[in-house]
Amino acid sequence: MKSHQSTQTMKPATAAKKLGVYLPATPSEFQEGVVSRAELNELQANPPQWLQDLRQNGPHPRPVVAARLGVSIAGLARGGVTEPLTTEQIEALREDGPEWLEKERATQAEVRQEAARIKEKKQGQES
Hints:
mainly alpha; 2 strands; flat
């Protein structure tokens, strides 16, 4: 008996999330179709020019903006950033160094230190 494997597909929003791009900025044929697992792998391995441009210049989705600024997504919201930003806008924010950004970066650093401390403590208990 042979098992028949169906092609796994995903919605464009899911594929955009996995590719780290803002869906409304992608080409219409990407937004209107479905993406198979093989197509997603191909896009990741050999990104077309539009994908390279989006990854480099934006607009970027909130998770990417947050990562590039070194803050959490909630920190972005507290800072009033609710829209996707371009690379240029992210750089401008970094250079301006608004008070909310410095505060959120400090908060994020504390969260990371605490997570590392807890991980270390758990590893010590397992030994």
